[in-house]
Description:
By secondary structure, this protein is mainly beta. 0% of the residues lie in helices and 54% in strands.
Amino acid sequence: QVQLVESGGGLVQAGGSLRLSCAASGDTICISTMGWHRQAPGKERELVASITNGGSTNYADSVKGRFTISRDNAKNTLYLQMNSLKPEDTAVYYCNVRTQRSYINSRTCPYDMDNWGKGTLVTVSS
């Protein structure tokens, strides 16, 4: 299993910046893709950005050009740099880490599954 702890959320003014962090612990050797999702009040959770173990990134259209996802495998940490924040970005942001089954290390990595953090609130004021 992988445990995740998000940090960096808070209140910022429109146009400001914020960096979210997600520290992973546990069976981190099993981690493949990592990403950020967000959920605004009354809306469904949506993908914000993701990054593979090879460094390939994917972004929601609404954040392209403003957000940057990155990962530090040595520290088992995922980041989301958010610039030019808008009130529409207000949401609870969740860290998502996918673990992948390993046939080589099947005892350590026996399952394909998604791990979720408890979320961190980002509020952008106008």
